[in-house]
Amino acid sequence: MQLNNNVTEFILLGLTQDPLRKKIVFVAVFMSYLGTLLGNLLIITTIKSSQALGSPMYFFLFYLSLSDTCFSTSIAPRMIVDSLLKKAAISFSECIIQVFSFHFFGCLEIFILILMAADRYVAICKPLHYTAIMSHRVCSILVAVAWVGSCVHSLTQIFLALSLPFCGPNVIDHYFCDLEPLLSLACSDTYVINLLLVSNSGAICIVSFVMLMISYAIILHSLRNHSAESRKKALSTCISHIIVVILFFGPCIFIYTRPATTFPMDKLIAVFYSLGTPLLNPLIYTLRNAEVKNAMKKLWRKKLISDDVR
């Protein structure tokens, strides 16, 4: 399908074309990406190193941090480099790869959030059957299904992108390649493609968001029968999950569930879910979770002791 295209590269306009503002973007994105890497890699290392964090909740949190790291990496490094360039060009092939990786890890994050909500539902509403239902084998199968589902979704995005003929212009008014801004450059009627985009990405966002909100509403309703201490602990976990869900799905629903029209605020809104959420997730899950903080302290003490011995 690419043979029908006269465009071999795209020009990304980024968040701004002003030289001073581009420097500000460079510093902001660099610091954000560095924080994302440090925060998520710290969670990944802590979960893998601590025996106390062996429950399914932390098994899923491990994959959430992994998907956050990869999700941010699909956007931030290129954005950092582009902010230093006068003309930010990306080849057609690199653009398609970015579309795939962005949607793959973004969709994986959505599925992991659903699995985390399911885990909390079973833990709070079916405590006596929790161990049997959420066994390590079941959790591994669920994560594998999430990876396969994300791959199917991303391949669909690639198929839609490759079906678009590009004759020029080749300037993308965005800071990364995505199907939505690519639609405005296609030299053909994109009504059907946009309809497929909304029915794919849009449906995933809306259905997943509704499922998550319903599951957490059921969980919060069931907490009235628990003791004050267990209710407080469950509320702390659920509230942190709900914050993540709202921060991630709000902007996604705005971008992917409407007709093929672009607004000036689209790029800024995209910053929330492409760069903001991967940065905030480690803060939300560590600052509101005593078990993770205690495991990090123990890991740090072990490292200090091992360094002293040497």
UniProtKB/TrEMBL annotation:
Similarity section: Belongs to the G-protein coupled receptor 1 family.
InterPro entries attached to this UniProt entry: GPCR_Rhodpsn, GPCR_Rhodpsn_7TM, Olfact_rcpt, Olfactory_Receptors
Signal peptide residues on this chain, from the entry's feature table: none
Domain G-protein coupled receptors family 1 profile: 39-285
Membrane association type: Multi-pass membrane protein
PANTHER family the record matches: OLFACTORY RECEPTOR (PTHR48002)
A single GO molecular function term of this UniProt record: olfactory receptor activity
UniProt protein name: Olfactory receptor
Location, primary (coarse class): membrane
A GO term from the CC aspect: plasma membrane
One of the Pfam families matching this protein, by short name: 7tm_4
Localization of this protein: Cell membrane; Membrane
PROSITE patterns: G_PROTEIN_RECEP_F1_1 (PS00237), G_PROTEIN_RECEP_F1_2 (PS50262)
Transmembrane segments: 24-45, 57-76, 96-118, 138-160, 201-223, 235-256, 268-287
